[in-house]
Amino acid sequence: LSGLDPAQPYFQGTPTEVRLDKSDADFVDIIHTDSAPTIPNLGFGISPAIGHIDFYPNGGKQMPGCGKNPVSQIVDLDGIWEGTRDFVACNHLRSYKYYSDSIIYPDGFLGYPCASYELFQSGNCFPCPEEGCPNMGHYADKFKDKIKRGFLKLYLNTGEARDFPLWRYKISVTLSGRSKVKGYVNVALYGSGGNTKQYQITKGTLKPDNTYTAYIDAEVNVGKVNKVKFLWNNNWINPTFPKLGAATITVEAGQNR
């Protein structure tokens, strides 16, 4: 059984006979997309973990792309009817959009086991454990025989619009050069599965021999990394023309470590 943001009003905190629960099937997976409190936030979805595995994309409360202004949302790419409906219940309806995208992307929507969304964002729950990470949505049941504990909370990030899946990477850059400089460092990945856009790894004071690390959620599954593009820039014209390079760049994919 797959629960697509199961209802909160009149169901949260009720006995298991009344609401969806892991006892209802051999395998119950849940996608929480609108689990903020009903009052005052108008959250339509239940927040506690109630399945064998519970996915909380983007933290489970506020979905990217749902904060668009009403006009742009109502005259949506999908038409006025869908746009109007999305404006009223955008977060709630994201659950079925993620699910339908998951059918097309069997390797997408990896959920990372973690105690909280904040810990996931800071990289504490990266990479996937040895048994791997389950895929949110249609292929979640592939993980059925790997569950070791009572409730498994899983976190991930998604895009703002279709296509929704993102793939998480840890990128560490060790700089080389002679003097420190203020600016930013960007990195793009090129691989057998496609190329990413540039992602900012750090900004501020850039010191040679220092290592800077960032977690990125890329719009493609890069696959085998063939090339890394490194770009740095200082924020203003510097008459000394400082030079900065990358001594090493390490890329770790969350999926296969």
Automatic annotation (TrEMBL):
<dbReference type="Pfam" id="PF00151">
    <property type="entry name" value="Lipase"/>
</dbReference>
<comment type="pathway">
    <text>Glycolipid metabolism.</text>
</comment>
<dbReference type="InterPro" id="IPR013818">
    <property type="entry name" value="Lipase"/>
</dbReference>
<dbReference type="InterPro" id="IPR029058">
    <property type="entry name" value="AB_hydrolase_fold"/>
</dbReference>
<keyword id="KW-0442">Lipid degradation</keyword>
<comment type="pathway">
    <text>Glycerolipid metabolism; triacylglycerol degradation.</text>
</comment>
<feature type="domain" description="PLAT">
    <location>
        <begin position="167"/>
        <end position="257"/>
    </location>
</feature>
<keyword id="KW-0964">Secreted</keyword>
<dbReference type="GO" id="GO:0004465">
    <property type="term" value="F:lipoprotein lipase activity"/>
</dbReference>
<keyword id="KW-0378">Hydrolase</keyword>
<dbReference type="InterPro" id="IPR000734">
    <property type="entry name" value="TAG_lipase"/>
</dbReference>
<dbReference type="GO" id="GO:0042589">
    <property type="term" value="C:zymogen granule membrane"/>
</dbReference>
<dbReference type="GO" id="GO:0016042">
    <property type="term" value="P:lipid catabolic process"/>
</dbReference>
<dbReference type="GO" id="GO:0043005">
    <property type="term" value="C:neuron projection"/>
</dbReference>
<dbReference type="GO" id="GO:0005615">
    <property type="term" value="C:extracellular space"/>
</dbReference>
<dbReference type="GO" id="GO:0047714">
    <property type="term" value="F:galactolipase activity"/>
</dbReference>
<protein>
    <recommendedName>
        <fullName>Pancreatic lipase-related protein 2</fullName>
        <ecNumber>3.1.1.26</ecNumber>
    </recommendedName>
</protein>
<comment type="similarity">
    <text>Belongs to the AB hydrolase superfamily. Lipase family.</text>
</comment>
<dbReference type="InterPro" id="IPR036392">
    <property type="entry name" value="PLAT/LH2_dom_sf"/>
</dbReference>
<keyword id="KW-0968">Cytoplasmic vesicle</keyword>
<keyword id="KW-1015">Disulfide bond</keyword>
<keyword id="KW-0966">Cell projection</keyword>
<dbReference type="Pfam" id="PF01477">
    <property type="entry name" value="PLAT"/>
</dbReference>
<keyword id="KW-0443">Lipid metabolism</keyword>
<dbReference type="InterPro" id="IPR001024">
    <property type="entry name" value="PLAT/LH2_dom"/>
</dbReference>
